[in-house]
Amino acid sequence: MKYLLGALVLTTTMLTTVQAQEYTQVHSEASHIRFNYTQMGVTMRGGFSEFTGELRFDPSTPEQAHVMIDVDLVSIDTGIREADAEVTKPEWLHTAEFPTARFESDEVMALDEQNYEVAGRLTIKGQTRDITVPATFSAENGIGVFTSHFSINRSDFAIGEGAWASFDMVANAVDIEFELTATVDD
Amino acid sequence: MSEHYTTTAKTLHWLMAILMLGTLALGFYMQDLPFSPEKLRLYSWHKWAGVTLFLLTLVRLAWRLSHPPPPLPAATPRWQQWAAHAAHWALYGLMLAIPLSGWLMSSAKGVPTVWFGVIPLPDLLARDPVLGDRLHTLHLTLNWVFITLLITHVGAALKHHWIEKDTVLLSMLPRFKGLNRG
Ligand code: HEM
Ligand code: HEM
């Protein structure tokens, strides 16, 4: 009886490990990409409504993960109508030539149960920078939620050139917030 | 022996007159600029000046309520005395309503006001671009009402001075020796 119980426990544990779930479907409609920027001391909130994600993430083998997020920059909402039109121009995002921004990573490191470090490449406006961002992952009923909050410098990507290059009007640091919902099914 | 406004009342009147006209002119000027850092800077300055005026108006009203103004010359017809009173209170009302509408408009347009870039004012309204446009119209309309009233106000002051040759304008001017028409 003791052995039977032991075997049972063992198989269940093995099963859950084998079944370990790989999250592959990003649901953009249930996801958000937002940003905060500071203009003359005023913190403004913005976001992107259009983006797509490609994902392979298994919490049991994070080192094999792959993630790629493409953001349609024209879908930007800066919080100010006039600025939405302005920010697509060559001085800013130059969307005519660089319509998408991409974040891509094959290096996900688990720090603990929920916290990860994601090292990857961020490409905006033709400029690629290596960045490492913190992320959290939690799952319930096969629905996984990734969040990440980090900050980039707009000057690293030549966002805001010419008259806008100085930081006294629009601060250099831009806070980025990701919230991605993914499922295992495909 | 003309009666003067108190020095505090005079100082506030003229300081605010200059600031108010500057804020007004800036409001029209900044509007037409192409989108640029300069434009954003001027928008911030306009809002800071406007909020300052709002606060000064509160101070001024507190002073006004505790320090009655000098009476108008006895010769002034009753209806003119009444009109002067009504106009003055309307001016005070507009000095509160114009910045208030600007503040609400800014909230509705989604741009919070941070006084001098340091003190954030609460957003009384959630972001709502349609409401923002309506409040913009309100802000502009109130400004035109103000301009009309101001022209009347200045016209009346000059008429008192040059046509009636009484002490009304002097009562709001610094006490120069010998200028007294008493
Ligand atoms: C006594 C104070 C003020 C005066 C005399 C004033 C006057 C004006 C005038 C004349 C305009 C141009 C309107 C137009 O052409 O449509 C304007 C625009 C504006 N005002 Fe004020 N204003 C005052 C206070 C404020 C305050 C306190 C705020 C905000 C906190 C504010 C925010 C704005 C904004 C945002 C605009 C531009 C609207 C736009 O372009 O969308 N104003 N103001
Ligand atoms: C933005 C500009 C101005 C504003 C908002 C303004 C507002 C006011 C207000 C509210 C009062 C009433 C004070 C009281 O009795 O409580 C007043 C009085 C007066 N203002 Fe102005 N004023 C402005 C510009 C001017 C100018 C340019 C002149 C001169 C040409 C002027 C001349 C006077 C005079 C003579 C009085 C005293 C009137 C009286 O005793 O009945 N004001 N002003």
Describe what this molecule looks like in 3D.
The complex is a heterodimer of chains A (186) and B (182). By secondary structure, chain A is mainly beta. Helices cover 12% and strands 48% of the residues of chain A. Chain A has helices at 2-18, 81-86, and strands at residues 25-26, 32-39, 42-48, 51-56, 66-72, 76-77, 100-110, 115-124, 127-140, 143-153, 173-183. Chain B is built from four helices and two strands; from the N terminus they run H-H-H-E-E-H. The longest helix of chain B has 35 residues, at 129-163. With 182 residues, chain B is mainly alpha-helical. In chain B, a hairpin with a 3-residue loop joins strand 1 and strand 2. The model of chain B has no long low-confidence stretch (mean pLDDT 93). Chain B is elongated and about 55 Å long. Chains A and B meet through strand 3 and helix 2 of A and helix 2 of B. Bound molecules: protoporphyrin IX containing FE (HEM) (2 copies). One protoporphyrin IX containing FE binds next to helix 1, helix 2, helix 3 and helix 4 of chain B.
Descriptive labels:
A: 186 residues, mainly beta, Lipocalin, eleven-stranded antiparallel β-sheet, 11 strands, 48% strand, elongated, B: 182 residues, mainly alpha, two-stranded antiparallel ribbon, 2 strands, binds protoporphyrin IX containing FE
